[in-house]
Amino acid sequence: MATLAAVPYYICPKCKERSVDIDAREGFSTQAPACRHCGFGFLFELLDDYYPAPDTGLVVTDQERRVLAIGRGVFEITGFPEADLMGLDLVEVLHFSDAKPVELAREWGVRRLGEHLSIRTRGGSEKRVIADVFPAYDDDGGLLVALTPQRG
Questions:
Q1: Distance from C-alpha of 36 to C-alpha of 13, rounded to nearest angstrom
Q2: Residue 131 belongs to a domain with what CATH number?
């Protein structure tokens, strides 16, 4: 009996466009796949398909939690433009009320979904968010952090 190999799911950190890719390569090259919708340079691989809310903002970090890319919606949630976040520790710059979900995803390579946290916006006010944290499955490591404003 043949077993089916898992097909990798990808999401663009900039525009949130989802896609699948069999070999994790761009065409016949050795490059990682790029977004065909907005042209962003890399896609983030997920184990399962993920549907972010329309007002969710995506942030990609390296292994040390330093911001590598931010997507549409992050400015609206945090008040920080991309230039002010690049290279900074995401947990420190946004003053996460609890770093545990980020650390568990980083150290153990597990997803943390539906984490209720508060962050501090650029204006200094506290904002409640729901965070979904995904570890990277490539050699570079890192994280994809989805921030969605809480209602009510």
A1: 13
A2: 3.30.450.20
Report residue 7 CA to chain centroid gap. 19
Express each pLDDT in 20-50 by its tens digit.
766 555 555 566 677 888 888 888 888 888 9
Is 69 among the domain residues?
yes
Tell me how far apart the alpha carbons of residues 63 and 143 are, in angstroms, rounded to a whole number. 7
- Assess if residue 2 is contained within a domain: no
pLDDT of residue 10: 87
Q: Is residue 38 part of a domain?
A: yes
Q: How far apart are CA 40 and CA 15, in angstroms?
A: 8
Domain count, the chain: 1
Lateral strand order in the sheet of 44-46: 18-20, 9-11, 44-46
> How crowded is residue 26: how many other Cβ atoms within 10 Å of its Cβ?
15
Report how far apart, in Å, the C-alpha atoms of 126 and of each of 72, 96, 130, 140 are: 20, 10, 13, 32
Task: Assess if residue 132 is contained within a domain.
Answer: yes
Tell me which residue range forms the domain holding 125.
Answer: 9-149
Residue range 44-94, pLDDT digits in tens = 888 888 999 999 999 999 999 999 999 999 999 999 999 999 999 999 999
